[in-house]
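Lecture 7 notes: from sequence to structure.

We start with a single chain of 85 residues. Read the sequence below before looking at the structure.
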Amino acid sequence: MEEVMIEFYKGKDEQAFLDRWQAEHGSQSDDQIDELYAAIADAVDEAVKKGEHELGDTFTYEGVEVGQSDFNAFYSLYLFEATEN
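Now the structure, written as C-alpha cells:
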C-alpha cells in the first residue's frame, strides 16, 4: 500500500486541530503527534477509498474534527483546512 501523509494548509489550521485534539485527549509529545498524523492519514485514505468520506467535506478522527479535506496526488498528501464556523 502506498504511504500517505497529511498536512495542513496553514499553521493556524494545524493549531486549531491540535487545540481541539489536546482538549479531548491531553497534551501530546512531538512523537505522539507524528504517530497521530500517520494514523489520521491512514484513516482518511481508507475512508475515501471505501466511499465513506468525500474530499471537500470535514473529516473527523476519533470524535475530533480535523478539517476540510483535499488530496494532492503528486505527493500522496491529504491536506486539511480549518472548517469555517
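Residues 30-49 form the longest helix (20 residues). Keep this in mind for problem set 3.
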